[in-house]
Amino acid sequence: VSHHPMIVACHCEGQGWKFWGDSNLKSKFWGRSIQLDPVGVLTLEFDDGEIFQWSK
Prior knowledge:
It is a single chain. This protein is mainly beta. It has one domain. Strands 1-2-3-4 form a 4-stranded antiparallel β-sheet, with no helix packed on it. β2 and β3 form a beta hairpin. The protein is elongated and about 50 Å long. It starts with 6 loop residues before the first strand and ends with a strand. The mean pLDDT is 92.
């Protein structure tokens, strides 16, 4: 976890599942606007072993 460069992390648990991830922002300046794109991996795991992952 960091402020410069910006890196965020999260962790959540509930009955039968766990969720965690980390992400940073990729930025592009277009002259009159800015584009911010999240980059990282998010993971959702269920107690039965099934896992879903999202990445950018």
